[in-house]
Amino acid sequence: MDAYDSGSDVSREAEAEEAAAREPQAPPAPEAVPDASPVPSGAPAPEPRTGVAALSPRYQIGAALALAVVAVAVCVHLGMVFLHVAPSNTVTKTHGEAIDDWIYPEFEQNWKLFAPNPLQQNIAVQVRAQIRTADGGSRTTGWYDLSAQDGRAIDGNLVPSHTQQNELRRAWDFFTASHDSDNRAVGERGSLSETYLRRIVVLRLERGGANGADGVVERVQIRSRTLNVRPPEWTTEKVSSQPVFRVLPWWSVLPGEAEGDAK
């Protein structure tokens, strides 16, 4: 009985092993490989490079050179356009042909910068007067440079007045715009400009004490002194260094004009 039972047990074990061998075996789980560069917990993942930074060094150098060429071309073009529309100067006189070759015909401009041209002259307004003295005599003063007086008042003054800066200059511009080269009035505003200019210079003479203690300003004569601004030393431009005078006739002073009562 025992021998039979033992044989049965051996037979069952053999059948169990054969059944297990016939069943498919699951593949073994892969072994975990440790990460060579672990990312710290909470740190953002690096973003991929874009644009020029994504290029290889060789292409980055090529892109930088291309951008440099474009930047230089833009600067040269802007400089050429500026010189084309700017008033005549030393650079345009020396390189005018090269500037025109660049501009025409594709980039032609129909406007000008600083129109009219900036003033390249110093214009001073001067006046002298004929004074009737208290004893009935008469004397003529020397020339007073009213523009120089305004210049001294403005120099070093942080807030110069509008009168000091513009009154005399605008009055002279008003006169020259309404008179021809022979000092003849042109248009209806000619006489008005004469009255305005004469009143200003008479007031200046009275305030400056040109008439003396008891003297009276009877007549005034105005002139302008124009002197060209000296060009810089590095230019070959030549201008006259001699002053040019424009002398107006003697004007009689109306009664009360020094006080601003003349009509």
From TrEMBL:
InterPro entries: DUF5819 (IPR043857). Keywords: Membrane, Transmembrane, Transmembrane helix. The chain crosses the membrane at residues 61-83. Residues 1-50 are annotated as: Disordered. It comes from the Bacteria. This is Uncharacterized protein. It comes from Streptomyces antibioticus.
